[in-house]
Amino acid sequence: MKILISEEQIKSLVKNLATTVTQMLDLPIYATKKPHYVCVLNGAFMFFSDIVKLLPEGKISFVKVSATSSGKVIKERIIRASTPLKIEEDEVVILIDTIFDTGKTLKALKEQILVDYFFSTGDLEEPDVLFVTLVNREATAKPDCLISGISISKDLWIYGYGTDNAEGKFRNLTDIVV
Fold it and tell me: Could you tell me how many helices (H) and strands (E) the chain has, helices first?
């Protein structure tokens, strides 16, 4: 194992990201909306716990995203919320995950949020959604709504600080390693 991002660097990145998100929430487009923070489980539990303490008060929800696959090809993302995501008209949804990889998780979550929002409000307009990650992969197309701390090579498999390796181990590490 080699440390890619140390515990101290993570703390600094989390603080900087919290400042950025708070500043975004102060912009006129979001200033009248209440934050609704959504933790993408399992990998984001440590990052979410650290950053949400530094953010303005808001509603908190959890979703679990898992992938179905055929061999090495991922077919679809399955989303399970601890309770249905009740998105209100006066909320801005802030999805928090440790890594932005291919964008497929974000796409699946946004689609589910649109469905939940429609059934909660009857409103056909798209709700405001921001996506916050500690890490993003280089050479991956990034959406405009992404706020991220650091870019890494698309070839690195990272684990630690909530994310696991291929065998489901090392989530408890305080550093991010390769």
Answer: 3, 8
Residue whose entry in the numeric block shows the structure tokens 């061999």: 71
For the stretch 52-95, pLDDT in tens is 999 999 999 998 877 654 444 445 556 665 566 788 889 999 99
Which region holds residue 162: left if phi is over 0, alpha if psi is between -120 and 50, else beta? left
Residue 97's CB is within 10 A of a number of other CB atoms, namely 27
Residues 69, 91: Cα–Cα separation, whole Å:
34
Q: Which CATH number fits domain 3-177: 3.50.50.60, 3.40.50.2020, 1.20.120.610, 3.20.20.370?
A: 3.40.50.2020
Paired with 94 in beta bridges are: 37, 130
pTM of the model: 0.86
- The CA dihedral of 25, 158, 71, 104, to the nearest 10 degrees, is 10
